[in-house]
């Protein structure tokens, strides 16, 4: 079987990594790229650099990856859908949920794969964590707390930290628990002098009763990507920078020191750091996209799922603006 012909739109910080991985992925052939600013990172080699999306489509594509600013997702995706090209767009799906709705409908109505690049789902630590949760290893889940902090990325200008970074945590939380968000309450601030918010704290409740907390910002000098899932048997801690997963077990040995036992609530048990096979998440994501196009299985993040995540993010921003708890989907 011949390789699937792939086009890439956008050669920025994320696009250059897509170019590298697409070239190395079995069954795919990167045949052309398009970027209005040219090949600023020098990654295309002898590939065709198209002057427009229309020109790139004219080369003949089976699938495409869109790695451009969020405001440009809709019109590019709709062009690709009209041309019958299976498409993966980087997250968030679009700048507004109405745009995301139009994108999802365009691909669904044509029977095309429309996917969103929520890459954290393909992180080895989170994939192992999800399997363990689904197997019941943690028992009942009480809470998911995430911390996603780091310096301001110069590449982001069109959206704030909620739509750019917090959508990772919104998506992975819903995916880990297989539950939608019910309510959110959020507070934001902007301290870097830019148009959009650069720091947010979010508390929420899922429809299955699990409570959540997300701390996200572009103002921290250290980079942190932590997910903590706490349940009746202990806590899992996933670090998606290092792809490490650690389990802190509730102890089974009684504590004889009464005052300490009363303070702790549960006793400290064994701590286990799991040995995981650590494949690059971007490669796993693009392989999943390839397999979905080939009809093998569809493990991609669908545009409908990306749209659901964006609607939660919009509820977060509404909550911060109105300073009240928001029921997702009620407005």
UniProtKB/TrEMBL annotation:
Protein name (database record): Gfo/Idh/MocA family oxidoreductase
One Gene Ontology MF term: nucleotide binding
Record key words, sorted: NAD
Species, as recorded: Cryobacterium frigoriphilum
Domain Gfo/Idh/MocA-like oxidoreductase N-terminal as annotated: residue spans: 4-118
Start and end residues of each GFO/IDH/MocA-like oxidoreductase domain: 127-236
Pfam families: GFO_IDH_MocA (PF01408), GFO_IDH_MocA_C3 (PF22725)
Organism domain of life: Bacteria
InterPro entries to which the protein is assigned, alphabetical: Gfo/Idh/MocA-like_OxRdtase_N, Gfo/Idh/MocA_Oxidoreductases, GFO_IDH_MocA-like_dom, NAD(P)-bd_dom_sf
